[in-house]
Design brief:
The radius of gyration is 30 Å and the shape is globular. The protein has an eight-stranded mixed beta sheet, with helices on both faces. A five-stranded mixed beta barrel has the order 1-2-3-5-4. A five-stranded antiparallel beta sheet has the order 12-13-16-14-15. The protein has 17 helices and 22 strands. Helix 5 packs across helix 15 and helix 13 packs parallel to helix 14 (499-508). It is 31% helix and 23% strand.
Length: 593
């Protein structure tokens, strides 16, 4: 017999009754039933119930066991009585009577429990992550992640893509986030950078003549963490294809995403078609470029109903260019209590409030508009608003006004809250969409300076002619995002593979040829030797698994995550370098003032 096990803790069935077996695992739970000791023995694969009665030669040793001790047992498989069968586990029809036991690894008192899913402080969970990973929910999430990655690889290879690895130590490149820098020992005073993404390398792979590339790529960005973004590092399904249009990328990624979410989504419906929504329309209807389409609410511009009205706050706002009034319909939200709650929500988000109108049955039995706004603008205007929004008795509408950039973020949150609270958002499904036609440029509201709004390596729609003839703020890029349930899974683009277009694109935001050559010289040099048109995208693996697992925080699907302060509490990183290490690198630490 094997030194440690003849079967795993999920491998025994009624067909094994009468066999002598050997199992090894952790003591998941111990129960004393009046002279009979029951142990739920757990390994990576599952749980088997083992037991010893007072006649067993191993009884005294079993009595000493504590939670999470690692043991090996030899025993006889017996069938459970029908009324004692546990249908929740594969081994639920049998139990093993212990004949011999050996402790392979004793455990000290646990800093957090493994049995059950007790909510524990995150700092404790991260410090003792090796224990946290033994817990059923987290263990399942990590296994789900592994299966998703394997399936992603299979699906990409089935479409003719080949996996290549790109460098981890590379040159610093401005791609929208801070680089992690690695000092060079051989070249004092110089640094490598960890790649924010394999962006330039994958484009060079296309120039090198490899037609379809993909990689489960590690990416490194010195960013502040969020619930859906891990500090330091993350993984993405990085892909690029030559002689490809935007539609070609969509044609590859849609079946991959649909297939992954159908395979691992637990039967939850997945969008049959991925709608294309222009960035401008997304901001208008949803207040965000990553809308949750499970929520049917769409905002509308209702400025004409408030221009010159008795509600002076909105009327005065509309006298200024660029301002508008938008309405968020709320079917079923027609009560003063709900409206007041949403008004308080807006105040909690830093706005003075959120105007509202709700429609109810009046004293004469007809429908009437109620609320402060209704009194100020009168029945004719409120009726026109109701008809435009398609609302009726028992419904409400909420209003925000000013420069759209000042209120869209709050409007997007309000739309989500309204959808959830009124039961309009369908929770148990996955709704995908493409956001397309992003503007190439945006103006910084504080400095007035033009900057890239998305990816600086993207091809402008209309090419060089558009850059020369159009107002930069009107130039659109072949840039696209894929979103699911309000989560951005990826950004992608048709790449700018022509040097003259790249020089002009950067000139518009104030960077001369010298800057472009200094920062992107390797890629530009390659483009001068015959570059094919190419396009790509890079869906985030962590976020995909987070959605599939129904996790609220991305740390629940990462094996060894950092905390909110980008610290690895288990390994003690970041750590202070030794003086010898600093001398080798020609560095010294200067205290912050």
């Amino acid at each position: 017999m094997h030194a440690y096990r003849s079967h795993t803790c999920a491998g025994l069935t009624r067909a094994d009754v009468g066999s002598t077996v050997r199992l090894s695992g952790w003591v998941h739970r111990k129960r004393d039933h009046g002279g009979v000791l029951f142990i739920d023995l757990r390994d990576h694969y599952g749980i088997t119930q083992v037991l010893a009665d007072s006649d067993s030669p191993a009884f005294a040793e079993v009595d000493k066991l504590r939670a999470e001790w690692v043991v090996r047992i030899d025993g006889l498989v017996k069938g459970r009585a029908p009324e004692l069968v546990n249908p929740k586990i594969p081994t639920g029809e049998i139990e093993v009577f212990i004949q011999a036991i050996e402790v392979l690894g004793a455990a000290e008192e646990l800093p957090l429990p493994v049995f059950g899913e007790v909510d524990y402080p995150e700092e404790t969970r991260l410090k003792y992550r090796f224990l946290d990973l033994r817990r059923e929910g987290l263990h399942a999430n990590i296994m789900l992640r592994s299966k998703v990655i394997r399936s992603l690889r299979n699906r990409m290879e089935a479409q003719g893509f080949t996996e290549f690895q790109t460098p981890i130590l590379t040159a610093s490149s401005p791609e929208g986030a801070r680089d992690f820098l690695v000092p060079s020992r051989l070249h004092p005073g110089k640094v490598y950078a960890l790649p924010q993404a394999p962006q330039q390398f994958k484009q060079l792979i296309m120039v090198a003549g490899f037609d379809r590339y993909f990689q489960i790529a590690p990416c490194f960005r010195d960013e502040d963490p969020r619930a859906d973004r891990s500090p330091g590092e993350f993984y993405q399904l990085d892909m690029e294809m030559s002689f490809a249009t935007q539609e070609d990328v969509f044609g590859v990624i849609e079946p991959v995403m649909r297939g992954i979410f159908e395979e691992f989504g637990g039967g939850r419906p997945v969008t049959a078609e991925f709608p294309r929504i222009a960035y401008r329309d997304a901001m208008l209807k949803y207040g965000t470029d990553k809308p949750d389409l499970r929520n049917p609410i769409e905002m509308q511009v209702v400025s004409r109903h408030f221009a010159g009205s008795g509600f002076k706050i909105f009327a005065n706002l509309l006298e200024q260019d660029g301002n508008e009034i938008r309405a968020i319909p709320a079917p079923g939200g027609g009560s003063r209590k709900f409206c007041d709650r949403m008004n308080a929500f807006a105040q909690g988000e830093g706005l003075p409030g959120m105007g509202y109108i709700f429609w109810r049955k009046g004293d004469d039995g007809t429908m009437e508009a109620a609320g402060p706004l209704a009194k100020n603008i009168g029945p004719e205007r409120t009726e026109a608003i109701r008809l435009q929004l398609g609302l009726g008795e028992g419904d409400a509408a909420f209003f925000l006004g000013g420069a759209p950039s000042d209120f869209e973020a709050v409007a997007a949150k309000a739309r989500n809250v309204i959808g959830r609270e009124l039961g309009l958002t369908v929770e148990e499904r996955f709704d995908f969409a493409w956001i397309v036609d992003f503007p190439m440029y945006e103006r910084d509201p504080e400095t007035g300076r033009l900057d890239f709004s998305h990816n600086p390596f993207s091809m402008p729609q209309g090419g060089l002619e558009a850059l020369g003839a159009q107002d930069p703020l009107d130039v659109l890029g072949y840039q696209y995002d894929i979103v699911c349930n309000g989560v951005e899974l990826s950004s992608g683009a048709v790449r700018n593979h022509r040097p003259e277009i790249m020089y002009e694109a950067f000139r518009i935001v104030g960077y001369d040829r010298h800057y472009v050559d200094a920062h992107f010289g390797g890629m530009l040099s390659a483009f001068r030797y015959g570059a094919p048109p190419h396009a790509g995208i890079a869906p985030g693996v962590d976020r995909i698994v987070m959605l599939l697992a129904g996790a609220e925080n991305i740390r629940e699907v990462i094996m060894f995550p950092m905390n909110q302060r980008a610290e690895d509490l288990m390994m003690g990183a970041p750590s202070e370098p030794t003086n010898e290490q600093l001398r080798e690198l020609g560095l010294r630490v200067v205290a912050k003032t």
